[in-house]
Amino acid sequence: MFLKISLIFVVFLLPLSCLATSSTVYYSGGKYTYKEGVYDENGAARAKYDDTLDTVGWGRFVVQTNKDFDDNVQAHAAGLLEGALTHTRLFQHRHNIFDWFLHHYVPGGIWPAAVWNFLDTNLAYIRDNIKNNPTDDYWVVTGLVVSQFEGLTEGYQLMAPVTEQLTELDLWMYNTAGDLLDLATAVSPEMRPNFDEMTRDEIMAYTLFRDHCTGLIRLTEGYQDIYFAQDAWFTFGSMNRVFKHYDFNYKNDIIKAPSMTFSSYPGFLFSFDDHYTLSSGLCALETTNEIFNTTLYDLVVPQCVLEWVRVRIANYMADSGEQWTSIFEKENSGTYNNQWLILDYKQFTPGEKPNPGTLWALEQIPGFVQKADITDHLIEQGYMPSYNIPYFKDIFKISGYPSDDTFWSYEDCPRAKIIRRNASSVNTFEHMKNMMRYNNWEYDPLSQKDPGNAPASRYDLKPKGESRREAFGALDSKVTSYELAKNLMVEAISSPTYVQQPIFKFSTCPFIFEHVGLPDEYHFPWVKWDFNSETGELNDQILDYDD
């Protein structure tokens, strides 16, 4: 048994938030007015932002809107607050991740004109449909997401210094970071790899930087609880984290989840990881799949809704996993091609067998989406993992995954074997947290002497001279449960795993890459994120370290 069970040294220490910056946006006569230092429920929206990145590894942003205002006014005001309050961190994060993108995904280090043209055309397409379909629920809700984005742009441009100004299209591209993992390749055929002419190591190196995350859902013994967890993987230069709580008060009853808690980054209007806890009783997570059959990218056109927008639409509108997957598959962009797992806690009662509809899975590729109720699979196996390899055989085959290599085998890849061995022993919340932080690559034979093969990967620890050695891997862990999710609460930690592994420090890291604004050492504790929407109070609590 290789799962480390750590002791909790501190259960409740101190409230995290005491010096949050409060701001309010007022709306009158068609004009928005931003006022800092005020948290006024009479405004169109009010927010608190606590920049605690240097102390706990996360900033904290919460926004509440006023039901007395039109829905689109609420959304715009919320976006304006986020853009204004997080503008400095947004600029830092954009600098860091786009430097990484241009060095690892875009030959020549310059965004192709085709990418800019695609995004410009795409935004126009979405706006045209919002305008031309004023009674269509789908486009009405899409309009709320775009209104929030327009507010983000206004707030950012209002507060950012002249030297850091960004255009609307700059910020649309910024929020398209997940879609960009596919988009540059899709719209520029000359950038598509020829996997037939690549060695196995070259293919593994190429796909590494597109692998994004580990997810795990655990149904404990006796059906006592369901834990819902995810580790985000990306460059360590992207660890400019913000935990967010959106509390909208929309009038339109098509909105089933007006409130949500999610891990994110400054100025992203979506998670990117992704990990959401929603007031509808749903939770959503994803991990990224690869496209080996690059001819599929011929199906990617700008007349679509990008993945990050479709996630927000589905989160708003769905009251079940079936609804979520049906809404999400509309207007498929074929970019940020992920496996999604949608858990419906309303279908679960502790101590009882989960009802049908408790867990849905969806996988997207260009031109095709497959989805199914996999509750029976969860009950039979006791867990459902997610690790960058398709669950559905049709998606696996159409995507062009190698069928003769266990590294890309859904059943036999290293993470599949590690999770299969360890998951059955996960029956407490602390066990689940430990599971998500697990990496014992030097001694666990299932890791095959590779620190990238664990749920909490650490590619920076690969021995010198080996391929795929980069400051890349699991950045965090987020875990919720039946009781926590009822109150939109999540426990999370922002640090590459330091369980049985050295603490990550930029000052001793042998790699050169951008990490503007980030603390040197990532040795942060678990935090319980808790926001009281009735009082507007942040009740977040610092918990234990993994040591």
Give a description of the structure.
By secondary structure, the protein is an alpha+beta fold. The chain has a single domain, classed as Penicillin V Acylase, Chain A. The protein has helices spanning 53-56, 71-85, 87-104, 113-132, 137-159, 168-175, 177-187, 200-208, 307-317, 321-328, 375-381, 393-399, 414-423, 429-436, 482-486, and strands at 21-28, 31-36, 45-50, 59-65, 214-219, 226-231, 233-235, 242-247, 259-264, 275-278, 282-288, 338-344, 359-365, 368-373, 383-386, 472-474, 476-480, 490-494, 504-505, 521-522, 526-529, 531-532, 537-538, 541-542. An 11-stranded mixed β-sheet has the order 2-1-3-4-8-9-10-11-12-13-14, sandwiched between helices. A 7-stranded antiparallel β-sheet has the order 15-5-6-17-18-21-24. β13 and β14 (368-373) form a beta hairpin. The longest helix is centred in the first third of the chain and has 23 residues, at 137-159. It is globular, with a radius of gyration of 22 Å. Mean pLDDT is 95; it is low at 1-14. Its EC number is 3.1.1.-. It comes from Anaeramoeba flamelloides. It holds the Pfam family Phospholip_B.
